[in-house]
User: Which sequence fits this backbone?
């Protein structure tokens, strides 16, 4: 209670009372241990008070309306990718089970995912020689491939390359199917049969039938063999998380792709309007170009792999000397296998001699020469297959059996695992150099104290096809990888692409000996026209009926 003569209301409104109230409230919030000793500091902070908030004034304000800021280029695309990327990183929520089900349910074995190549480290090796994807782009591709492995039953997956399009770009993954994880097809699910010999519906289709080449009779290779050994998935630059499976390539697609030069749009369902006509959509054309690039530009350092049966046994001349190996062999009916090289004993000099450069890690910069790189992709035949097609119904005719000798029209190709130096050189018309090698090589900068070296092989026939090899001193072999980044078109060797000419116009019907008749005039028509019928005479009764 306040003392006598003191007004309670006036006391509470006094500044001293309000100050003490604020100090006590402040100390009640902070609750210091030695409140009596530091009451002076609390009083000082309350007296000084807090800084005033910044006040807005219209003295220097700009009254003009501010335009809305436009979004920078690529913000929407990056936002969509970040959203999908966040969903990928979040692990799936486990299904809630009751305690009884948890006790009874046996432990489930974790599903073994496929093997995924390290895209980031591979692109770093390419970046050492100034090629490949950027660090951020390679990371996004790596995350997208991981997402693909989670969805599809794949045993292996690697980044094949990137093909530029006019609307969007293609990112391509090369995979192998895990047969143990593939779901069995139901009996009712049958693949739709393709319509063969369909009549042309438009003038464009009719013109392509005139003078067209004979259709290829070869059947496509089975899935998992030859040109269809790998399966390819493609994603666009709009959304790397959505992958589409490309169909297996057919011989007619490869044959048609060799005759045209068509840039990609980035739309898998786009129509290929070319002359001659391509029998399919852009997804079939993309798969055909992938097959051509893969079979011709997949290379590796020499002696990393070995094979059997690719070349006939070395022949000897009359004096017993071995003849040089042939650079061409007949097309294979069965493709030879490819196996990794087994390192010989370090103390066996005779076993090391044939693979000396490989055994010591290519110390003498052998990988700067074409003879130290080999093709590990099978040659693509003219019929659009890697193995020779042999129809089962084909039997020798009686006349041919009687004559005895049957001409052998088997295509000649380079043997499997042949050196890239055997590839045909490129000739550019009007250039000072007579020819250019099909492959060029260079070496990345390295410190003198470093024991590793990085080499790059580049194809001039397919611009954008690359391969790197990282070798280490005194260590057998080398790490390598292939990549393609380009527009998906073959080099024209300096020429302008000229499509096949349209069919020649048909000749007019010969007019010799034809007598043309002149049109008659109106008077001539009247001269030969029949006479008009006589007028009908009416009777009296008929006239009375008409009057009524």
Assistant:
């Amino acid at each position: 209670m306040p003392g006598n003569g003191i007004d309670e209301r006036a006391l509470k409104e006094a500044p001293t009372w309000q100050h003490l109230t604020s100090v006590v409230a402040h100390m009640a919030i902070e609750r210091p241990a030695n409140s009596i000793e530091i009451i002076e500091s609390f009083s000082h902070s309350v007296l000084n008070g807090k800084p005033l908030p910044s006040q807005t004034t219209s003295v220097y304000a700009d009254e003009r309306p501010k335009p809305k800021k436009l979004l920078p280029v690529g913000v929407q695309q990056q936002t969509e990718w970040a959203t999908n990327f966040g969903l990928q990183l979040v692990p799936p929520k486990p299904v809630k089970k009751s305690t009884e089900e948890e006790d009874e349910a046996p432990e489930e074995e974790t599903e073994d995912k496929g093997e995924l190549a390290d895209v980031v480290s591979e692109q770093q090796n390419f970046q050492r020689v100034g090629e490949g994807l950027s660090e951020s782009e390679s990371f996004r591709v790596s995350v997208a491939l991981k997402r693909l492995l989670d969805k599809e039953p794949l045993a292996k997956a690697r980044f094949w390359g990137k093909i530029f399009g006019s609307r969007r770009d293609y990112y391509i993954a090369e995979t192998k199917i895990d047969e143990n994880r593939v779901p069995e097809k139901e009996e009712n699910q049958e693949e739709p049969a393709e319509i063969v010999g369909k009549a042309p519906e438009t003038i464009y289709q009719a013109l392509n039938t005139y003078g067209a080449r004979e259709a290829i009779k070869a059947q496509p290779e089975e899935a998992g063999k030859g040109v269809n050994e790998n399966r390819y998935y493609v994603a666009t630059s709009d959304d790397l998380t959505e992958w589409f499976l490309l169909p297996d390539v057919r011989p007619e697609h490869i044959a048609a792709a060799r005759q045209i030069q068509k840039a990609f749009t980035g739309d898998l369902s786009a129509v290929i309007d070319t002359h001659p006509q391509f029998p399919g959509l852009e997804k079939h054309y993309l798969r055909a170009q992938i097959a051509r690039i893969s079979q011709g530009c997949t290379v590796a350092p020499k002696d990393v792999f070995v094979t059997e049966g690719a070349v006939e046994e070395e022949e000897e001349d009359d004096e017993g000397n071995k003849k040089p190996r042939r650079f061409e062999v007949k097309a294979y009916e069965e493709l030879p296998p490819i196996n990794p090289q087994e390192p010989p004993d370090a103390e066996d000099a005779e076993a090391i001699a044939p693979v000396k450069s490989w055994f010591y890690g290519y110390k003498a910069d052998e990988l700067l020469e074409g003879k130290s790189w080999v093709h590990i992709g099978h040659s693509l035949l003219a019929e659009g297959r890697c193995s020779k097609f042999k129809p089962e119904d084909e039997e020798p005719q009686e006349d041919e059996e009687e004559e005895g000798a049957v001409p052998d029209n088997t295509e000649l190709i380079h043997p499997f695992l042949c050196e890239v130096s055997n590839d045909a050189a490129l000739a550019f018309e009007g250039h000072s150099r007579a020819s250019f090698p099909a492959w060029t090589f260079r070496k990345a900068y390295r410190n003198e104290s470093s024991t590793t070296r990085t080499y790059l092989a580049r194809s001039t026939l397919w611009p954008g096809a690359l391969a790197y090899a990282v070798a280490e001193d005194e260590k057998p072999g080398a790490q390598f990888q292939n990549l393609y980044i380009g527009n998906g078109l073959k080099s024209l060797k300096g020429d302008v692409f000229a499509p096949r000419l349209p069919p020649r116009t048909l000749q007019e019907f010969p007019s010799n000996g034809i007598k043309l008749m002149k049109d008659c005039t109106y008077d001539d028509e009247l001269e030969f026209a029949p006479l008009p019928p006589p007028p009908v005479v009416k009777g009296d009764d008929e006239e009375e009926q008409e009057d009524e």
Q: What stands out?
A: Residues 115-181+198-308+326-390+409-501 form one domain. Residues 131 and 442 are 12 Å apart (CA to CA). The longest helix spans residues 135-151. The first strand starts at residue 115 and ends at 116.
